[in-house]
């Protein structure tokens, strides 16, 4: 048995992008109840405006925000919802859990 406590989805995405994550346990394939976080950046994309009249859009950064999660079971999977007009690269999810025993 495991008690899932924290999770960290890792993306290359616009700055401060950290979608809410939930843990589904024991091969649960139901639709997760997560909020869709839209990724967006401010500024102008390359070759989309006249030089010296705009601010450049910020680039992608690696997101590393830990979040508190809950769940108990033998197996777990991270679930989240994303929406973006920007490039998002998903690199995986770190999950923290406590190992337990059967009662």
Question: What topology emerges from the helices and strands here?
Answer:
Blueprint: E1 2-14, E2 22-25, E3 37-39, E4 60-62, E5 67-73, E6 76-79, E7 82-84, E8 89-99
Parallel strand pairs: 3-7
Antiparallel strand pairs: 1-4, 1-5, 1-8, 2-6
Q: What global shape is seen?
A: elongated
Total beta strand runs:
8
Q: For the terminal residues, how far apart are their CA atoms?
A: 10 Å
Rg: 18 Å
Count of discrete domains = 1
**Secondary structure category:** mainly beta
Mean pLDDT, all residues: 81
Please summarize the sheet with the most strands: 4 strands, antiparallel
Strand content: over 45%
Relative helix content:
under 10%
Helical segment count? 0
The sequence of SSEs as H and E is: EEEEEEEE
Low-pLDDT runs: none
Describe this structure in words.
Helix content is 0%, strand content 47%. It is an all-beta fold and 103 residues long. It is elongated, with a radius of gyration of 18 Å.
Summed up:
With 103 residues, the chain is an all-beta fold. The chain contains no helices and 8 strands.
Any key phrases for this structure?
mainly beta; 8 strands; 0% helix; two-stranded antiparallel ribbon; 4-stranded antiparallel β-sheet; 103 residues
